[in-house]
Structure formats: structure tokens, C-alpha cells
Amino acid sequence: MCPAPLHETVPATTPAASLVFTTVLSHGPLTRAEVARRTSLSPAAVTKAVRPLMEGGYLVEDLDEGARPAIGRPANLVRVDGGRALFIGVKVTGDEIIGVLTDLCCRIRVARHMPLTGREPAVVLPALIAMVQELLVEADGFGVRVCGLGIAVSGDVDRLDGVVRYSPFLDWRDVPLADVAGTATGLPVTVDNDVRALTVAEQWFGAGVGLSDFALVTVGAGIGCGLVVHGRVVSGAHGVAGEIGHLSIDPLGPRCHCGNQGCVEGIASDPAILREVRAATGRPLASVAEALELARGGDPSAREVYARAGEAIGRAIGSVVNVLGPERVIISGEGLAAYDLFAEDIRTAFVRSAFGTAARCDLMTRPLPFEEWARGAAATAIQSFIGPHTYQD
Amino acid sequence: MCPAPLHETVPATTPAASLVFTTVLSHGPLTRAEVARRTSLSPAAVTKAVRPLMEGGYLVEDLDEGARPAIGRPANLVRVDGGRALFIGVKVTGDEIIGVLTDLCCRIRVARHMPLTGREPAVVLPALIAMVQELLVEADGFGVRVCGLGIAVSGDVDRLDGVVRYSPFLDWRDVPLADVAGTATGLPVTVDNDVRALTVAEQWFGAGVGLSDFALVTVGAGIGCGLVVHGRVVSGAHGVAGEIGHLSIDPLGPRCHCGNQGCVEGIASDPAILREVRAATGRPLASVAEALELARGGDPSAREVYARAGEAIGRAIGSVVNVLGPERVIISGEGLAAYDLFAEDIRTAFVRSAFGTAARCDLMTRPLPFEEWARGAAATAIQSFIGPHTYQD
DNA sequence: TTTTTTCATTGACAGCGGAAAAGAACACCC
DNA sequence: GGGTGTTCTTTTCCGCTGTCAATGAAAAAA
């Protein structure tokens, strides 16, 4: 848990206030009447919830009296004042740390990248703290207090305790990140798995707004998946969920380090694609970008590799959709750079493997640059700043 | 929705009362103090919630003052009086209707089977209503009012409207079951998918009690899966979820009627096993029971078919566990009759395909005879009788 | 200008659940 | 056998929350 923040009290104290606040936060400027309808609270309750939030400066009257009804008294729009509070989000990757300073609406104000010389905690933690310090200095320039720090790390993360249980990618075990970062910076800290953090950002501020069931699939160095069911991000009973990277797609496919054969990640991740294109063309390619170039140039065997990757991704999505029946699947990640190459294959494989009404699911892509991952971390900080009563829908 | 029941008011009106009631219902006789601890309500709130429920006769003081503390005042146990209300659960299969009369604790008091001469609504609906009437007569013998009727049907069921959208097995489309049964019997009716209904029963009264994330996998004529995430049964955005029967396990496997290849259902369902054993042995087997007998007798090709089925089931479970990270998977269904033949294969394939901590998931079997499916339907009726505030955990 | 419609606010009020204290029922200890 | 301590249960009181009903406000329509 975050060390009790002396910094600032939570804006929303009662369930109703949280509900109102998160509704306005996600659904843009709204009239009070509209908030009442969406939350099924009484208009009176909305008024009473809004007042203290306005006095605290978290909500402001929006002067654009945009949507006035055809008849009757015009409505006053209410929106969240993003500038009221700042947050820092940090994403740790294998070779760099990405940090962003966002406002309360999770808009990025400053973004920073910092290369890493190693992956071990002894290297990463000081760099991370230095990054936060830098961003705190930046924040001074805005004259607004930083109210939370969110950190996103790949792997098995216990977000209640703020401990990285095991990150295969970083080779970390039981690193008490929240404690370390909290004592070093004095900020309330949230630590979460990177894909879950990105999912939170999409749920509150992105393509998942208003949806109670959706999935976010990330394609890149690995294949990940964040899930929202019943309006809540899924963590699983043991803190791990959405591990679609090791769904076995093809029992005869390449052997994966996880011990299985034909995992999605062994077919469609960047390293796998690079390996396969190398093997298929015999060329000593240096990076997946070159493989991509080759395929774009029309090389048939490279294209074939991408087609297989697309099919694997499509089938993995089909599995998720069959199991959970989400309303939407958002495809994202660096791997999207090659989207034009396998979009067709993804969709075809998805439609074929999705059973029945599952095909009603809306499949969309969303290019999320690396800073977005750090923004996801900030979103988790915002979420915990607002409080425990974070009902969606 | 159920037509407003003149029959009986809902026992629990406030959220706290519901919480107390469902806690006592699922976790057997409890002391008030224990209820307070589990629900994190104050002891005073528990007392105040219990009183009206006792006056209504739903809760009773349990005279076995079993667990008294080592020191201090002995506690009074409180439990649900099952005899206070009766419910009817009906499951419709292809060739028969199974009906049960249960008490408020979902214990079966009477079970009835009724063969069907056809599957079309014109045949099934009158038979279903006749079955309910019979059970209502039985209920008179107990001198207790029947407070709800639950109906379970396989396929795509809209449980809010009580309409069977599409049941491939019965070849039904848009059958307004709740309306028909409600007007014919005068009972409040709930209609739900059969696997979901069974999942509800397990969640409240079975192997899922106290778990916020688990899966129920049914193996038999088809392969189904019910999911509980965050303490709630998953229905998906469009009312369909848990369709693991058409996860594609083997791209080169037998073609399935769904258009895909190598579906679990095409490998491990009873019809698939029968087909494969026939093909492998060349014998004209009449039923899956004979195939089972052959395999039990040691026929190597029959055993091979079962081994493949087990592997498919294990891998499907592995997929679910990778995606959702449940605490437990309950394997059930008629197909369990052959469990000794493929238990090992299921477990091996599961462990191999479950990634990382997913293997921490507890895999168990539970023989649920056909009456249990009807009991599941009754469980949905009980759930809706108790009211909308049915928090689990 | 009056009416109608919708939005927003106010004040009264019911009720829920918590805190604290009292009471109850036992074991233990001298 | 009477304190003492412990735990369970109930009672009383009280704050707080959100609804209800009524009122006021601001515009379009009549």
C-alpha cells in the first residue's frame, strides 16, 4: 500500500462522489443532469457530490455551454480540471526507462527517456529514482503538486504490496519497488504489471471508456493481454492473468522457452519473426525492422512469416473472445508497425476461430507509442489517488 | 424480468442484509461475530440485519452450539432455514426434461425426469409446464410455498429478458421462455444458460464457495465452461462466454461443424470420441458407453483416442487458466465417467500448457449427475429471489 | 406575457451502518 | 465462590448519505 500521503487528501470520499468524479473524468465534460442519468443517482445527489469537488478545485464549470437542450433551461457542463494535480508514470523496459508527467486527466505534459546500462535492480532503481526527481523538478515549473507515482513493470507484479514478484524479462525477483520508490521520493506509489497499467489507461481514458468487457492485446517483444471483465481489470487469483503469449496455437510449431510448442509468442513476437525471417531467407538481418522492410519489399518468404504471425495472433484473440465474450479487442504494441502486413490474416483467423456471437466483437487497432506505457503507469496512480471506490459502469 | 411476484417479498432488502444472508447461505451455520468478520460489517450491523430475517423465518438459531471459543461467551450459530421456501429447477436436454424441487439451501427434495418426443418448442414447452405443475403438487405436500422457477437451457440465453436467443442443440430461436412459463405457472421465472446455472450452483453451494475466481468445465455431449471472475459469473458483453468447446487445439485435427479444425469438442466430446473409436477400431459401436468399455478392456487404439481427448481437454483448461488465472478449475459432466482413462493426460497437458504461476491453479473433478443441472437452474431462481445485492467476497 | 420544459438547488427526512457502551455467558484463577 | 478476563451480542445514540418533494432558474414556444 502507499504510505499515507501527507500530500493531498483524496478528492472523493463517499461512493457517490467517486462515482460522479470517475464518470466526469472518463466521459468528458458532462452536465449534472447527464451525470445523474448515467450513474442513476438523483440529481440532488450529483449536486451535493459536485460541490466539494469544485471547492477542492478538482471539478470546474466548463464555460463552453455546448450541448444545450432543444428546449428548457440550458445545462452547465462540468469537467475535471486536469491542471489541479500532476502524476508521474514510469515504465521500465529492458534498455531504458520511460517517464511521463501527466495531469489529472492523464494527458502527457512531459516525457523523458533514459537509457539503462543494465537490468539488475541495483542499476535500474537509482535510475528510476533519478528519473522521478527530474520529473519532479519539471513539475515545479507548473506550480502544481505531484500527487502520485505509478510504475509499470512486465511480469508478475503484486500490486497490493507493490512488489515485483518475478519479472523474467528483467530477471527480477521479489523487488519491493513501492517501498523503495516511496521512501526515496516521498510520493504515494503504485506498482503494477505493464499490460494491466496500459489496460487501466485505456479503460479510463482510451478506447475502453464505457465498456464493461474488453481486451487489450499487445504485440511486440512479447504478446500480452489485459482484460476488463465486469468493469474491472482482471488480475487472476494469484495476480497473473492475460498470459496469452503462451497459448499454444500449433502443436507442431517452434519450441518455446516455456517448454511448450507453437506458442503465439514463439510465432508472432518480434524476436520470433526476426528468427523466422532469417531462417526463411538466409539473410543475416540485424533487427525486426529489416525483416519488416524485406516483407514490405515483397519478399515472399518474409511475407509468409508475417502471414503466419498474423494467423497466430488472430487465433489467440479468437480464444480470448470465445472464453470471455468481450465487446471489443484493442490491438496495440510496437508490432503494430507491421499491421498492414498481417491485418488481413489476423482478422481472417479471428473470424474463423471465434464461435457464434463472439464474432460480434469489435476488433480495432490502436497505435500506442512507448510513452503510452508510462502513461498507463500514471493512470494507475490516478486511480489510486481517486480512491478505492472506482466503479466503472 | 420476473413478473412482480405477489407470492413473497424478497428476504433481504438492504445491501447489508443481502450480504449477511448470502454469507450464511454459502458458508453454513455461522456465528454473528464470524459473519461480521467475513463481511467486514460491524457486529451491530449484523445483529440488525439478522433480526428481520429471523422474524421472516429465513434464518434460525442453530441449536448445536458447536464451535464455542476456548474462552469467552459461547457464540450462537445462525443458519438458513432451508424449509422456509421451495424452488423449482428445470433443465431441458435433447431427449428429456429434468426437474427438481429444492429448498432454500438448494438441497434437492424431489427429482423428476420426463422423456421428450421432440425438441421443438411446441413439444417442450407444454411438457416443461406439466413438469412444473407436478412439482408444484409435490410442493403442496411440504406445506411451503414455491418462490421461484429456474430454467436452464444450453445455448445463447438472454437471462435478463428470459429469452432463449439461439440454442443450436434444440434448434430454438428467440423463444420467450420466461414469459411463457411465468404466465402458465404464475411463478417468478429465471432463464439462463445451463452451464452458467451450474456455475451459480457451484459458486453458492458447491466447490466454488468462497472463491472469487474459478472455472467450471463440463465434458460430455459438448464441452462447456462457466467462469466466475471477481466473484461474478461471466456472461460476456453479448451474453455468451466460456465457449471453450471451439477453442482450436490442433490445426490439423478433425474438421468441426463450426468451420474450424481441431476444436476441443471435435476431439473430446462424447460424439467425437465415439466417432474416433469407431474409426480406429472398425467396430460398429452403438454408444460412447461401449467405446468406454472397449478402452477399459485395454484396446490400444481406443485408449489412444481417450488419451488424445484428455490432452485436448487439458490444453483447453490450460488456455482458460492462462487467460484468467482462476484459483480452481472444476471438471465435471457425464464425460467424467471416463475420467480414469484420461485423468493423467488432462493433467499433463494442463501443466505443460499452463504458463508460470498458472500452474498454481487447483484442478479438481466433481461428478455432477444430471439432476445437478436442474439444481443449477434452481440456484439461479434462489439467487434472483434473494435480490439484486448478491455480493460474493 | 404566460406556459412549458429542462436543469439545478434547497431543505426536510428516512434509514443505514458505525461507535461506544452495556449486558451476557462462559473459563479461569485465586 | 467471588472476582477477572474474554468473547459474543445487543442496545442506544448519532452522523452521514442519498432520496423526495418543492422551489427557483433559464430558456423556447405559444
Automatic annotation (TrEMBL), chains A, B:
PROSITE patterns: ROK. The keyword Kinase applies. One of its GO terms (molecular function) is kinase activity. Pfam families: HTH_24, ROK. CDD domains: ASKHA_ATPase_ROK_CYANR (cd24073). Keywords: Kinase, Transferase. The keyword Kinase applies. InterPro entries: ATPase_NBD (IPR043129), ROK (IPR000600), ROK_cs (IPR049874), WH-like_DNA-bd_sf (IPR036388), WH_DNA-bd_sf (IPR036390). Belongs to the ROK (NagC/XylR) family. This is Sugar kinase of the NBD/HSP70 family, may contain an N-terminal HTH domain. The lineage of its organism: Bacteria, Bacillati, Actinomycetota, Actinomycetes, Kitasatosporales.
